[in-house]
Amino acid sequence: MFIDRVRIYVKAGDGGNGAVTFRREKYVAAGGPDGGDGGRGGNVVFEVAEGINTLLAFRYKRKFIATSGENGKGGKMHGKSGEDIVIPVPPGTLIKDAESGRVIFDMAQAPRYVLCKGGRGGWGNRHFATPTRQIPRFAKSGTKGQEQEVLLELKMLADVGLIGFPNVGKSSILSRISAAKPKIADYHFTTLSPNLGVVSLGEGRGFVVADIPGLIEGAAQGQGLGHEFLRHIDRCRLLLHVVDIAATEGRDPLEDMATIDRELAQWNGELATRPQIVLANKSDLLDPADPQVQAFRDAVATQGKELVFVSAATGQGLDEMLRLTEQKLATLPPLLVYESEVAPEEQVTSDRQETTIRLENGTYFVEGEWLLNLLGQVNFEDYESLNFFQRVLQKSGVFDRLREAGIRDGDTVNIYDFEFDFIY
Which of 38, 102, 231, 422 could form a disulfide with 341 if both were Cys (CB 3.0 to 4.6 A apart)? Predict the structure, then answer.
């Protein structure tokens, strides 16, 4: 079974709590607080796994939770950090926000990506000892790990896409030019999922070809199988448009080409402008002197497309097709990589919970569980980290809420003991 789109829930581990303990040892006076810190929660990590080309592993498991950090212990012993949970995905997987559908990260950019960070461990009570507070009976709790629902969408990493109506010979061509072994039979929709093949041209040269299951009229609207796999053409730099030039099923190859081009345009307007080479397959069944052959040549030339007469059965024209494909690819830009459409600060605030603001003794106290978790991710000694914190507060509407509450320039804001002066 081929699965290329799935929705899952992921959660990083929570940070362990700091310990409240005191050193009590015979003959040791004033042992003092010795509570250890909690361990860090495990991250949620996506990792590209070569050799898999489907999201089938997610069919039955849709929830992934990393382990939490252990609580601190006495004797200044730190809690054990939680283990990261590593989620293997096929090359070319897009990670999208489940609600908005916007791209968070394209796994074509890097083989490893941390989506959700584990919570920080809380401080033990030894951190809170001062000359005037020598026996602190409190510690800091660990922060919550980030959590999110995401949509995984597979867009195969192929330089070249084989497109065309069912039964025109796409799989046969793929089996001829690569080591791929797709199922080949003389009936429609033999190919039920995209097949990848690596074409080797020697001396380290070559390219990857994707055989896309047969498209039919109405594929972009959900007819047949093609609508499920049109997304796999999105990255292809070059399209090999296969037609049955012998019209063995009674269809007009020119009409077939026009139909497929319309479906591509309806799915993604940019696909209609993607470079194409027309492969007139089953040419071994034709008489080269047939007037219809010349008419087909003229029509394809009018469209500004390259044309190669090939035969998957005999191998005729395939070497010429490979040579032309290599030449074309050398002039085209690299594989499409999708840029993130979600800013880091939006990822933090997208699932925020209720925020409360109250005024006490001239100080505005801002509280909310998401803010408590946010504080655990910010290094207040780092300028960039502080800027990130400010952007999150801006985008989440905290500053607007403070203005509505009547805050003035210079007033103090307290977010879980982190204080700063408000500046318009």
Answer: 102
